[in-house]
Automatic annotation (TrEMBL):
It holds the Pfam family S1. This is S1 motif domain-containing protein. The keyword Oxidoreductase does not apply. Residues 1-60, 77-146, 163-232, 249-282 form the S1 motif domain. The keyword Ribonucleoprotein applies. Belongs to the bacterial ribosomal protein bS1 family. InterPro entries: NA-bd_OB-fold, Ribos_protein_bS1-like, Ribosomal_protein_S1-like, S1_domain. GO terms for cellular component: cytosolic small ribosomal subunit. Keywords: Ribonucleoprotein, Ribosomal protein. GO terms for molecular function: mRNA binding; structural constituent of ribosome. One of its GO terms (biological process) is translation.
């Protein structure tokens, strides 16, 4: 018996290999769990390769294949009970029965953002899960924990309105914006363009992780489960004053800060640049 399987004497001078993957429909950690030296087994010949002097044998082929009626036992959208067998960085592997496994992706753990699956799942935990998809070729069932929980987005219109002001805590800051935890298990997103009227290089200049801020709700998409927020729209729009200060026809002075093929950018005051098109330079 080896880690990868067991060698079986078929008759004197003729041996075959029973690979660990052919021992049972369920996951087998070590061949010694199922077979022992000296044991007489009834096996099926799977393949003969004379040139390699190799005979492949199977034990599970003589057992009932649990995947034969898996769609009847685990219909799509049904809620089933599963046991966590492994917690990974991307989710968790689940055993529904011997030989039938499933997986819960990180995005299907909870309606709220989950950074580490281990914060929710523990090995050997038994819990209800919803069947999302069955891949018979890969022998894998895709499952969801969050869809067995109340969906906070169903009543989103009751709690959040366009142009309403909400308070939330920044939980993640990325180059393109910041994610904000709101009440009722809802997460909002602040695009970098909605953080401040001034140009910023990175959202972390204005928004700090774990700090609370007020935001304005500017868009709600129930289908995509997206709630877009703005911080800058709670502040006066400086461009309203700029339009008055730099009316069309006004003569102004500025410093050239960037030259391009299509013209020159001129700084008029802090955070205010103007463009002189190439056709207007001379």
């Amino acid at each position: 018996i080896k880690d990868f399987g067991a060698f079986v004497e078929i008759e004197e001078g003729l041996n075959g290999l029973l690979h660990i993957s052919e021992m049972a429909w369920a996951y087998v950690k070590n061949p010694s769990e199922l077979v022992s030296e000296g044991e007489v087994l009834k096996l099926r010949v799977l393949e003969i390769e004379p040139e390699k002097k190799k005979i492949s044998l199977g034990l599970k082929q003589l057992l009932t294949n649990p995947w034969e009626d898996v769609k009847k036992k685990y219909p799509i959208d049904s809620v089933v009970e599963g046991k966590i067998t492994q917690v990974t960085s991307y989710g968790a592997n689940v055993e529904l029965e011997a030989g039938v496994s499933g997986t819960v992706h990180l995005s299907e753990i909870d309606w709220e953002y989950v950074e580490r699956p281990s914060a929710v799942f523990k090995k050997y935990m038994v819990l209800p899960l919803k069947v999302l998809k069955i891949d018979e070729d890969a022998h894998l069932i895709f499952l969801s924990r969050k869809r067995t929980l109340p969906n906070p987005w169903e009543d989103i219109d009751k709690f959040y309105k366009i142009d309403s002001i909400v308070k939330g805590k920044v939980i993640r800051v990325r180059d393109f914006g910041a994610f904000v935890k709101l009440d009722k298990g809802i997460e909002g997103f602040v695009p970098v363009s909605e953080i401040d009227w001034e140009r910023i290089k990175h959202p972390s200049e204005k928004l700090k992780k774990d700090k609370e801020y007020e935001f304005k709700v500017i868009k709600i998409d129930k289908e995509k489960l997206q709630l877009t927020l703005s911080k800058k729209r709670l502040m006066p729009d400086p461009w309203l004053e700029i339009k008055k200060k730099y009316a069309v026809g006004t003569l102004v002075e500025g410093k050239v800060v960037n030259l391009t093929d299509f013209g020159a950018f001129v700084n008029l005051e802090e955070n205010i640049d103007g463009l002189v098109p190439l056709s207007e330079i001379s």
